[in-house]
Design goal:
Strand content: 15-25%
Oligomer: single chain
Distance between the termini: 68 Å
Helix content: 25-40%
Largest sheet: 7 strands, mixed
Structural class: alpha/beta
Shape: globular
Strand order of the largest sheet: 16-17-18-15-14-20-21
Radius of gyration: 24 Å
Length: 501
């Protein structure tokens, strides 16, 4: 039996103990990994060990998939009514609500996001997401299709079977809710791999799923590294569908593995290099606030981060004055400090990656107006960073940095700005700031992005679909659209009175 880890929090925003199971969760039980090895979980505020979790292996994936298939064939899938699935999801949401502060504390602990943002955004959104999909569980409907009076033809939207889900480290709980919500609502059984950097909230959630009473095997969690457990999930021939959120590079590998194994269904939510466009008729104060939120939210570790800020030349100087002033006001530090806006980056690896891009920008001749330096002597803290005087071919303009780093670019022509904004391999999101609704919507419709925000940024709702164009992914998550990812459509044709002569 794997051990539990008890973390004692004594912070200004949360005091208490949280017990986290450290094993894999397979067939309704927490178990040790097959190899008896462990993965270190590191505190990004100081680089020190929090605890060790059991490491899964491809053998453990096989065991989890077998448990998931058994559940799908006996107690889950079409054997559990929509009403039963809805009740379980509602119970899970209730348990999440009861433990909301604990979940937020865990997100802040191993991810580094502030407790305040985790509690008011990540946790609340995740609860709403599970409740939203509980409402769909008994409403996954087919159609009756008219062909002739001699036949009855109808469709069924059936759960696809065992599904694999791989979630990232930037929004651990939120991405878990996005994945398991529609999967469990439709009756699929799940094998999920959390990020090895941020597994604590997922493990705690597994204990809540167990408390809620989901049938053993309907949900399984296998800790592990992407190159072993993630690869095993992507290649597994008994997994009928895989959902992945993460980098475009890894997304390609998953798509290749899915194709080479059993042509499993794939949905991918990948990288972004989102533009924020500030026209000369924008409410400048609000544009500054929202553009800053667009890039600095979650420390810039957000796939839809507005990292390319385009500002009309007529308001450029005033926008920059206010934007730099606002950026300087953002406090970087302890995620459990109620006055802190930005905590540490998630890991040494991510810290090094971001600092590498900052170095590249400097070497390429871009100008730093603010930031670009480490904060403090320990942990993975980076100043919010603003580059200007950039060129379109620079790495900091073209590549996803995934940190609190933006480029600000001056423009003067409405048509040209659309071309500049679309000049990216990505197409996940965009923001447009203008008081002229015709101008704003005309621009929004021309942008090649899966989400366009007008006079806002980074606002997501469980009922609104999210996904990207181009290399930002395949398919849509959230909303009714996500249900199609987890169902197979069966057409049934019934002969009423046709006869062959």
């Amino acid at each position: 039996m794997p051990e539990n880890y008890v973390h004692k929090f004594d912070t200004p925003v949360f005091k208490g103990e949280v017990t986290i199971p450290l094993g894999l969760y397979i067939d309704g039980k927490f178990v040790d990994g097959s190899n008896g090895t462990y993965i270190d979980v590191i505190n990004p505020t100081n680089g020190k060990l929090i605890t060790k979790i059991c490491e899964g292996t491809p053998k453990d994936v096989d065991i989890a998939v077998a448990a998931a298939q058994k559940a799908f064939d006996t107690t889950w899938g079409l054997n559990a009514t929509g009403v039963q699935r809805a009740r379980l999801l509602q119970k899970l949401a209730d348990l999440m609500e009861e433990n909301a502060d604990k979940l937020a504390a865990l997100e802040a602990l191993d991810n580094g996001k502030t407790f305040k943002w985790a509690r008011t955004t990540d946790i609340d959104h995740s609860i709403r997401c599970i409740r939203y999909y509980s409402g769909w569980a008994d409403k996954v409907l087919g159609q009756t299709i008219e062909t002739s009076e001699a036949k009855l033809v109808y469709t069924r939207h059936e759960p696809i079977g065992v599904v694999g889900q791989i979630i990232p480290w930037n929004f651990p709980l939120q991405m878990m809710a996005w994945k398991i919500g529609p999967a469990l609502a439709t009756g699929c059984s799940v094998v999920l791999k959390p990020s090895e950097f941020t597994p604590l909230s997922a493990l705690f959630m597994a204990s809540l799923i167990d408390q809620a009473g989901f049938p053993p095997g309907s949900f399984n969690l296998v800790n592990g590294y992407g190159g072993t457990v993630g690869q095993a999930i992507a290649e597994h021939k008994a997994i009928e569908k895989i959902a992945f959120t993460g980098s475009t590079l890894v997304g390609r590998k998953i798509m290749e593995a899915a194709a080479k194994s059993n042509l499993k269904k794939v949905t991918l939510e990948l990288g972004g290099k989102s533009p924020s466009i500030v026209f000369d008729d924008a409410d400048l104060d609000q544009a500054v606030q929202w553009a800053a939120f667009g890039i600095y939210y979650n420390h810039g570790q957000c796939c839809c981060a507005g990292s390319r800020i385009f500002v009309h030349e007529k308001v450029y100087d005033e926008f920059m004055r206010r934007f730099i002033e606002h950026t300087k006001s953002l406090k970087v530090g302890d995620p459990f400090d109620p006055d802190v806006y930005q905590g540490p980056q998630v890991s040494q690896q991510q810290y090094d990656r971001i600092m590498g891009y900052i170095k590249s920008g400097k070497e390429d001749g871009a100008k730093i107006l603010y930031g670009g330096e480490r904060v403090g002597q320990e942990g993975y803290f980076i100043q919010p960073t603003v580059f200007t005087e950039v060129k379109p071919n620079m790495k900091i303009v073209q590549e996803e940095i995934f940190g609190p780093v933006c480029v600000v670019i001056k423009f003067k022509d409405d048509d040209d700005i659309v071309a500049q904004a679309n000049d990216s391999i990505y197409g996940l999101a965009a923001s447009v700031f203008s008081q002229n609704v015709t101008r704003a919507l005309s621009t929004a419709h021309k942008l090649r992005a899966g989400t366009v925000w007008v006079n806002t940024a980074n606002m997501l709702y469980p009922q609104v679909p999210f996904g990207g164009y181009k290399q930002s992914g395949i398919g849509r998550e959230l909303g009714e659209y996500a249900l199609a990812n987890y169902t197979a459509v069966k057409a049934v044709q019934v002969n009423l009175h046709l006869s062959l002569s």
